[in-house]
Amino acid sequence: MYKRILVAVDGSSHSKRAASHAVFLASTQSEVHVTLLYVLDYDKTSPDLVQQLTSEELHEDRRNKILPIEDMFVSKGIHTEIKLLHGDAGPVIVEHANQEKYDIVVIGSRGLNTLQEMVLGSVSHKVAKRVHSPVLLIK
């Protein structure tokens, strides 16, 4: 059913819950390929961190944040790759998901109420509205 799964991750507890559900989806079938997508937004990264680390070190720091999530898949024998992209998370996830034509996109949600979502914006809401594939939001 779902052979190509995209999981948007950032190392948060919300993305870990989303990954946990994606592990369940992927483990019900054989020959599933999971892509863990982390979007690095320099505008939202601590200026001190950006100044202290080189671009390579920053990438390595972010990759280390999602290694525990990757381990969830590897421990179940699920083929996984990590992609690190740059930019505003919502549009970057949407563009990547639509270009690569995943069977499903799994993303965590912070559970914002309507006012919070209107003021703060919601990556998961943007993804759910604009991705052509089915989107599974995990609260």
Describe this structure in words.
- It is a single chain.
- A 5-stranded parallel beta sheet has the order 3-2-1-4-5, sandwiched between helices.
- The chain is 49% helix and 22% strand.
- The protein contains 6 helices and 5 strands.
- The radius of gyration is 15 Å and the shape is globular.
- The longest helix has 20 residues, at 55-74.
- It starts with a strand and ends with a strand.
- The chain is of the alpha/beta class and 139 residues long.
- Mean pLDDT is 85; it is low at 115-120.
Query: What distance separates the N and C termini?
Result: 23 Å
Proportion in helices: 40-55%
Q: What do the pLDDT scores average to? A: 85
Beta-strand content bin: 15-25%
**What is the CA-atom radius of gyration, in angstroms?**
15 Å
Global morphology: globular
Order of helices and strands: EHEHHEHEHHE
Strand order of the largest sheet: 3-2-1-4-5
Strand-pairing-aware structural class: alpha/beta
**Count of DSSP H/I helices:** 6
Low-confidence stretches: 115-120
The tally of beta strands, per DSSP, is 5
